[in-house]
Structure formats: structure tokens, C-alpha cells
Amino acid sequence: MREFKIAEPKTADELAALLAETTETTAIIAGGTDLIDELKSGVATAGLVVDLRGVAGLAGITKEKDGGLRIGAMTRVVDLAGDATVAKDYPGLKEAALSLATPQLRNAGTVGGNLCQRPRCWYYRDPEVVCRKKGGFNCFAYQGRNKYHCLFGGSGCFIVAPSDLAPALVSLGAKVTIGSAKGDKTVPLEGFYALPEVDVTRENVLEKGQFLKSVAVPAPKPGQKGVYVKLKERGTWDFALASAAVTAVVKGGALAEISIVMGGVAPVPWRLKKAEEVLRGKPATEPLIRQAADAALADATPLRENGYKTDLLFAALKQAVLAVAA
Amino acid sequence: MAVVAAETLGLEPKDITVKLGNSDYPWAPASGGSQTTPSVAPAVRDAALKALERLKAVAAARLKIDAGDVVMADRKFSSKSDPAKSAAFAEVCRDLRRETVFHGERGGMPMDQFAFNTFGAHFAEVEVNVETGQVRVVKYAAVQDSGQIVSKLTAESQVVGGVTQGLSAGLFEERIMDDATGNPVNPNLRDYKIATSLDIPEITVLFADVVDPRINNLGVKGLGEPARVPSSAAVANAVFNAIGVHVREIPMTPKRVLEALKRKEARS
Hints:
Helices cover 29% and strands 20% of the residues of chain A.
């Protein structure tokens, strides 16, 4: 591990000023479950590590006046998973939080850290490899070993978005507040993530000087239901091969409103708009879900070893849509 | 080693100090290859029996009785005909000079007449999700014939460990190599996946516990490897039984199970 300085700002303003002024390469540390590993292996380097744990007001879950929920970026995943309002109003989000990693990692990991975590691509994680994401010229996964890589949205970089919370939150229509010295701004979480074609070296739109402050989830609509299905290789402590977050309002047996977002299949949480169109207004049946999956898969470009994920997409979609419609 | 020596000498395992792993000691096999109990324990038994013989003679002299009349139990030597005459193990040892009673003699084994094998039968019950390719082992039973069982607790643990390793290898563990560089792409415990506690089912362990008198003076056979060897295969055969097609490679990941199901579909 290379040497670095550490800063421990006490307020959001102090943090914003620090990030704006510093000339060092900075890394923001929240729970540290992943960044420490990256710094130790040399995959990430930083002259200045900014610790968010002492910043007042970044943790906690609060009910908003409009009935929605605001989740501070430094809220621990274990607290999100155990929150009574989340369990009642957003069961899919609770399932996503509980499906994530292990109890030890959920105790340390934060919501903001989970949403901003770097990809797990094993070429990116190899300190000896300089891939496109690290400023090199080649993606080694494209013609290499790629059973965990993406079906959609890869262009020059074929990572998958590893977060479990992100698909659930995007399907709920969540917005994120980004802090900086110029003041706060709010963007939809869906727009917070960016494909490799935008900037291959990062996975979201955070610019230098900006940091994730909180996530706001809109109030649940009457009759709204949510499900998160995560398919993985072993029972626990595993990233999703494919996961499906479905938020829907069922009226008279039909899916009046539906939002489907998948994890593990694209470099960003992948919204299945074409599948939503197939399903919207109709009762959920297996043939219709097959049709919806096929509509979504029309955009898929499987790599040499990840073709099985097209089956997993259908399986996850079926489990999630049938559960939400039940 | 301590259990065998203690039982032979009428002592408790805590009375025995096992000295192991120092170049100053005589040659000994490594602990592995399923040979520790069947190779080391009989030698300990042999040495302990020889020590006992010598100690009985010393005790007989101390108690002024016939050596054939000496019995040893509960940490003391006593006279069979007159139990009032007795001496503690430690007292008798005080009459001894430092002596070596066992010089590493090798016992003969009539290899041309007998073969020695350990036997076992393993049973796995699995559930396969044919849409996701996920395999879950629901129940597992292992029956082993390893001769006389020296310690039931450690023997059971050995089998549970072997089954766990086999299940993990059969379903999760794979060293994945990059073809272009020849480097492994998953040299860490995040991507080289081992079974978690959620993946391990109820494991029932049974022992035939049949003493094989010809194999050695304790009738014991090895148990280190025998439980590991069949366990991946038992899971694979159960998967075949469930889906009607063999998954030809381990680990049987969702990818490989789904690919096997596709092969089956293409054939029919």
C-alpha cells in the first residue's frame, strides 16, 4: 500500500470545501469494505483519503413531508435492512439490502458506498493489468474470461454494476442528492449511472469535488409492491449473476404500473423498458413474461462465456414478476 | 497417539505428552495420505505394549510378586491374587532408568495374501432449478468402513470436512485461467468461491466400525481422504438423476447446468 494522507471533515460544508480545494488525487472512504482492499492491492491509488464517517448529518433514515424516505449516504446497509418503514413501504429494497454480502460487510458497508462501489471485473481488479477502465487501451474481458460480464451496454468495457441496492432504488424512482462547494443538486438515480461510452474510467456522473449526500425514495403509491430476486452461484456472500428489482401497482389482476431494473447484466443498473411495455396493463402470465424477456433480450449481445445469463434474465424476471403480481 | 498410548497403559490421555514435529526426534510420516491413524497409532500401541511389559517386571520386583501376577489399571500396578499389594504408575517409573523399549521395528504384512482397502458409500439428495441452473444439496449421508474407530468425534468431523470439501469442489470451486496470459483471474477468496455455511446441508455420518484384525494391531484404517473422494461425484450423480443429463465438469455452476440442459434439449 502506498502512503496517503487522511482527512476527517466534520461537516458537509467542510467536506465540500476540502474536495474543491485539494490538488491531490482523492478517494472518498465510507465503510471502507472495498476501498481499503483496492488501495492495498494497488488497483486504486490516492494521495488523500477523505473519511466521511465524522461528517455530521450524512447518516440516518428520515421520513419526508411528502411521505417519501430520505436515506443518508452514510447509513449503514444493516440499518437500511432493519428499518421498519423500509420493510413496510419498500419490501423489495429491504430484500436487496439483506441479499447483499454478509452480516459483517452489511455492518460496515454504507448505502452510499454500495451505490458508488467499483466493478468486480477480475481484469480491472488485477493490479498487474492496465485495462481501459484504468487508462489502458484494451478490455481484456472481451476476448478473455467473461462469464460474469455484461449482456447489455458494453462498449469497450464489459463490467456489470455490482450493487444490489441500485436496481431496487432505481425501480422505486429514487433520486440522489449530490453535494459540492457550489451547492447541492438532485438527479434521478437512473441518470446518476453512466455507461462506459460516456467515460470508461468511471461508472457514474460524479465530477471532481462532488460527493453523494443522500438518496430520496418517493412515497409508495397506493397498492405498490416491490420484489428483489437475486440469482447467485452460492447461498450467500456472492454478487448477483443476474438480479431483478420489480416495483409494480397491480389493479384488477393486471400490472397497471411496472418498473423493472436488473443488476449483474450491464455496466449500469439496467432498466428493461421494452419488457415493461410488454407487461404493462396486462395480467402476469408465464408466456407474457417470456415475451417480455425476449423483447428485452433483443438488445443483448452475449460474450463468449456469458450466454447463460440470457436464461437467468428470464428466470429472475419470471420469479420477480410472478411474486409482485401474486 | 495419546489416546492409544493411554488406553494401553491404563492411563488418561492427559497423562501422555505427545512430542511431534522436531528434527531431533526419530523419523515419522507426515500427517496425511490417510496414514496417520493406521501407521502411527499401531506403532504407538506396539511401543506402549513393550513399555507395559517392562514396567510390569519393574513393578513385580518392587511389589515382590510374580511378573505374571501384575495387572495395570487406573494409573496403578497391583497384584491379581492380592489386590492390597499395589504401586502407583509414577512410583514404579521412579525405579526405572531412562530406557528405550521400542526401536522402530516394522511389523510384517502378508501383502501377497491380503489387500487392504477402506470402503464407503455416499448419498446426496439435491434440488436443481432448471430455470436458473442452481443446485442445492438438501441432504447428505456418508457411511465409512475405516476399521475400528479410535475417536468417534474426530472421525465424524473428518467425514463432515471431507464431504464439505467435495461438495464445495463439486459446486463452487474453480481456478479460472486467462488463456492469453496463463494467469489465474480469480486468485482470491471472493472470486474463487468456496461453500458457505448456507450451502452445507444436514450431513449424516455412519461407521461400519468393523475391526480388521489383519491390517494392524489396532484394526484401524485411514479416514483422511476416503470421505473427500466420492463426495463431488455423489453430488454430480444426484444432479444427473434429477435432470437426466450429466454435467461433465465441476464445479457444476448455473452456467454449466444450464448448458447441460441445453445439450439435452438439442438431443431430444
